[in-house]
């Protein structure tokens, strides 16, 4: 599984409110933590410390921005492909 695929899977797990994500991967816990760190630095997730735990959540604003960006590009490419059909 590629790095990008692992990060997408982490995002999917957080979206489904999974409480334990480390067990979903065949990589070490520090490796998963590294992916979470990248997602945190990219502002895709937020993190809250609670005693000895770190609670990660999706940053809904960042996800909305990605959705809007994707929608614009999908529309642009759809128009270009429609012109090719003419």
From TrEMBL:
SUPFAM superfamilies: Winged helix' DNA-binding domain. It comes from the Bacteria. The keyword Transcription applies. InterPro entries: ArsR-like_HTH, HTH_ArsR_DNA-bd_dom, HTH_MetalResp_TranReg, WH-like_DNA-bd_sf, WH_DNA-bd_sf. Residues 3-68 form the HTH arsR-type domain. The keyword Mitochondrion does not apply. Keywords: DNA-binding, Transcription, Transcription regulation. This is ArsR family transcriptional regulator. The lineage of its organism: Bacteria, Bacillati, Bacillota, Bacilli, Bacillales.
């Amino acid at each position: 599984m590629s790095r990008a695929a692992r990060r997408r899977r982490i995002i999917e797990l957080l979206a489904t409110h999974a409480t334990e994500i480390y067990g979903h991967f065949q990589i070490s816990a520090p490796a998963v933590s590294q992916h979470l760190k990248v997602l945190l630095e990219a502002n895709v997730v937020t993190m809250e410390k609670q005693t000895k735990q770190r609670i990660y959540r999706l940053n809904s604003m960042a996800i909305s921005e990605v959705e809007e960006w994707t929608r614009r590009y999908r529309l642009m490419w759809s128009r270009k492909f429609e012109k090719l059909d003419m």
